[in-house]
Amino acid sequence: MQIYQVGGAVRDMLLGIEPKDRDWVVVGAEQDELITKGYKKVGRSFPVFLHPKTKEEYALARSEKKKGSGHQGFDIDFQAKITLEEDLARRDFTVNAIALDENGKFIDPFDGIGDLKKKVLRHVTDAFAEDPLRVLRAARFAAKLEFRIATDTKKLLSKIVDSGELCTLSEERIQRELMLSLKTQAPNNFFKTLHDCNALSKLLPECNLSQLTDPKCKVYKYFKKLNNALENDYLILMAIYVSKENKNKSTSSFPKLVSRLKFSKVIQEQVSIASENWKEIANVSKASSDSILDLLKKTDAYRRIKRFKQILTSMEAMTSEYGVVLTKSLALLNHIIDNPVSIEDTLKTKEYGNDKIADEIKKALDKKRKEQINEARALYVISK
Question: Which domains does the chain have, with CATH numbers?
Fold first, then answer.
């Protein structure tokens, strides 16, 4: 039994990047042998084991043969006779098909080290075209590593798109690859790679995202201003950008995309609110107290404080473009939300079940809220 370190950790090591996770491949062993040594089996479709001490993943060397459609349409052979080179040959890019043995020697049958030096993503074998997920992985690695894609590999990406198999990819997997790419230093490479092989409109058809192929796209300037960013931040800012750029089209296109990709309910709500209300939020410092109250009520900001404040936090990344108006608008809204006047829950009790009484209380509440808004406006308002 021989054990080799493989995959992204080896690649990152050669690039001088501290690996986050390490993966291992075991050659010349059967499942029972690993179980006897205390490894815990966790893989379903193929044997993956957790090391008894480090809990790192160890997979039996395997080969794959296409049997059906989609990312999972493969017969997998993990017999002990499978060699290291056969295992490396099934991988996507040469830079991910490098192994490191227990003596610190690199095994590189496909010249991945040479491609690392050239900063190029090149497929290992033509079997690359059998897996539709590799379109998304190519786009993500182009963004993460800022590598160019080899000409022959581009042709295979187009071949995958033409095969129609992109439709077999799950929404959850598309979501994952999108978010990993948005958090890189060159997210435009993700969209450019998909655009160049005609996959962008097929994977993300709800709205025109072709402008995101430009590294100078304003939304990326917003991304760079984010601190300790959450998924919400990236998607809220994208929603605002798409809404701005599609002035003559429905603002609901990006929220539809976020919904289809099965992001959390809170993120879907925040994206929808940002798409529809970002202009009003950005100009609150020039708005009347009535307009501000209407905004806070229609976005349910008094009840869903955390949800609304996340939108305000995300929009802070836009202040360098919108200046003092946005800065004061966000400060004003934060001031109001941090000092709420609310008896909403009281109105739901049986004691106030009479509609007339409830209406009177709502009017009184609105009056009190307007007073608070006027006090805040005195601190942050900008004269028209």
Answer: 1-118 (3.30.460.10), 119-205 (1.10.3090.10)
